[in-house]
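Q: A reviewer asked whether we had any structural model of the full assembly, not just the individual parts. We don't, so I'm hoping you can provide one. Inputs are below.
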Amino acid sequence: MNRTYELMFIVRPDMTEEDLDKLIATLSSVVPPSGGNVQRVDKMGKRRLAYTVRRFHEGIYVLLVVEGGGAVMHELERRLRVTEPVIKFLTVRVDEEQKRLDKIKKLRDARKKVSAQPAAAPAAPVTPMTPVTPEQPAVAPAAETPATA
Amino acid sequence: MAEETKAPEQSTPSERPRSSDGPRTGGDRPSGDRPRFGVGGRGPGGPPREGGGGRKFFRRKKVCKFCTEKIEDINYKDYRLLGQFVAESGKIVPRRLTGVCSPHQHRLSAAIKQARNIALLPFAGRAS
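A: Here is a predicted structure for the entire assembly that you could use as a starting point for your response.
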């Protein structure tokens, strides 16, 4: 029951802001009864469509991230189909993809952390280990070491 | 010696592009274990195939943009990134031209198709 879906839909461009908000509220109210919760609502604004949809050339894009089972999306999509201002919608399931991305991010962060550690070590006194300077005269190492540090 | 054009029996067609059906059975040529991908920058081994116009030398190795820049999230939403891999006509550009590696090309292709469905990219014609 922890599937995450991304629902993007396009609303006709001549909708007012408050009508849009009302519509989003109506849709969001459908979600909890079916056992889900809306994670995020993103109004992406008016955009020119790549092709004509129902004789419209522009549309207002809205993104809804919903967490829940399949029944939630089924109900949401059913509502969207009958809602008149909505001209197109697309549902994508994203939890598997998100898991994969999180895993990669974790790996990358872990790798970065491991490589960041030796950066701290050279800052520590490394003088007794410098194999470059041969300790010929006894005076020289004492004089040289402060310079190399 | 068995690798050469054995005889003009039926092994000659199998030397040609592997994507078409050659004599898969029989195994008279060791072509069964070779990958049966389509032609591409596989190297100018043997006679020059009709890779991209019958040129002998392949282009310099193009690198996968997603691998080098470590872009893992190929989303249908970033149409600008996807638009780079789409031709003027709206078609998805083959990976032998863009140099994208195979798994990324699959994800890219799926994302482009999703973007097309939600009118972020066109099916045909110029991308607005």
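A: Points you may want to mention in the reply: Residues 3 and 30 of chain B are 7 Å apart (CA to CA). The longest helix of chain B spans residues 102-117.
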